[in-house]
Amino acid sequence: MSRGRLYWYKIILNYFILFIILLRVVSLL
Prior knowledge:
transmembrane, single chain, mainly alpha, membrane, transmembrane helix, rod-shaped
């Protein structure tokens, strides 16, 4: 398979985790 697709999937997953952490921090404030 193409290596680029897996790379983009990793980037999206990283941003998704960051978004969840940000939501948790905002809810704690």
